[in-house]
Sequence to fold (312 residues):
Amino acid sequence: MLLPEEYVEQAFFFESFIEAINDGIPAQEFLHSIRGELLATALLYKAVDFMRIDIKYTGMLASSMSRLTHYFSPFQIFIIEESEREDGKLDFKTALQILAKEAKYRCDNPSAQGVFLYQFETICRNRLGYIRGLDMLIKDDFYNSDWKKWLIILQRQIGFVPLADMIFYRSEYYKMYDANFRNHQFENVRTNNFKNQKNQNDNNCNDNNCNENAVNNPPQLSELLEADSTDAVILFGEREGRIAFATRNKEPAYLFSALSRHLGYPSVPRKKNVIEEENIVPVLKRKIEQLENRIQLLEEELRGGIDLKKYM
Fold:
């Protein structure tokens, strides 16, 4: 875990990077100019210096971040690597938005539940691959040993067991729900046994000679239900478990949306679909330029031939 001021600087860095991309500023020029705005006492200042030099030779931001594992988290490196892949599905600007929002959330006492749900939603929505994505989460020192053990289980069972069920079974709400269910089942069994015993005693009565000593001995709880041999550590609270239970057998997107609405967990930025009407003007400009070039070639051909020297 870094100091809160580091995450503040990271959020500012990623947001400024997005603005530089929108303004058409190259990455090398941006890394050189952003140095003056960062705090000189922050570690990000030194990291930017290293990235500025490394990007001149590699042209990639992820290569320099992968050498700064003591500063950048495995998840941050993973997101930038996926955005810089030629066959990747994640846009670089969207990746910066994801990292900026995560850094903002980590500024003020982030919970492990909120960070996990945000990172896992990022992997799901952008189809980055569960195996490699969860492996980055397991390597993150932000999670303690209990979380890492559960992440390994999640890595094995994802795709076979719904995420809502796994969160529900590791929540405080499940313990409450399980205890109520067991008590309710115990009461039902005891009531049924009492009725069966009463009917049997009534059948055994001869005239007015009933067996007054027939007593119903309800079975013990351990006889009704098998003992839980698993020592599952609670990782989620009651509200997370209640929401997970309410969204079982539904799309995972509904689970993430409900957790964001009720608990204030950050939602993952999504790439906006570009409407064709918004890009109609640049397309028309290119078409006009192509027509002008073709007309110019036709005019030169009518004058006696095309001069190829200016194209060589």
DSSP finds 15 helices and no strands in the chain. The chain has a mean pLDDT of 80.
